[in-house]
Design goal:
Mean pLDDT: 87
Shape: elongated
Strand order of the largest sheet: 13-12-9-10-11-8-7-14
Structural class: mainly beta
Helix content: 10-25%
Strand content: 35-45%
Radius of gyration: 19 Å
Order of helices and strands: HEHEHEEEHHEEEEEEEEE
Number of helices: 5
Length: about 260
Amino acid sequence: MGLFLCVLFFLVFSATACDRCVHQTKVAYFSSASALSAGACGYSSLAIDFNGGQLAAAVPSLYKDGAGCGACFQIRCKNTTLCTEEGTRVIVTDLNRNNRTDFVLSSRAFMAMAHKGMGQNVLKLGIADVEYKRVPCDYKNKNLAVRVEESSQKPNYLAIKFLYQGGQTEIVAVDVAQVGSSNWNFMSRNHGAVWDTSRVPTGPLQFRFVVTSGYDGKWIWAQKVLPADWKNGLIYDSGVQITDIAQEGCSSCDDGSWK
């Protein structure tokens, strides 16, 4: 397991160490937030309540095969006549397959970049030139939550998704075991934020997962998360909070223009 983690950390950290750099791109928007809530991350209707509906679909390099689901970004448009200096914060809930822009935003997020009363003017742009950088997610003291997916079939199949993943982090590996046992079974990323396994332990369940941030990473244990009689569709409190902030690892990180 130690060698596996070393290789895993190297692969992930080399790609994420520059997350706090400022990038230049264009963004478009969806006219309906439902297009994002039904997105590749698998949050479904829960996404509508994330961040006041300020959601985004991100290109593959930011979506990261689902590891980027739930990541937060600060985005501001460069039209200073229409837009504020601080811009707005979005949460990634979908994969953007349009290579013309790094993000496609919900219309609410697109308008939130604007000065007060100028949201409709910004919408008329259709596509806006922007700057963006990754920022920590703050769920106001909410613990990481585990939702049991409706596709789960006790006792042979368990599918879960993680909600309220704080900090500037990614979950890159998940194990599950019966509470009190050291016999861990790995889970696989099914899609987006959804992980599953066909090797489901009996009894109450605990989880451990590898969380990365920048070029740093660690194991986190969440004990007594699912009761023995866990039920599909319910959300369970993990009892842990993730607040790690990505470390700087860029030799040329242009963030001086963002105050």
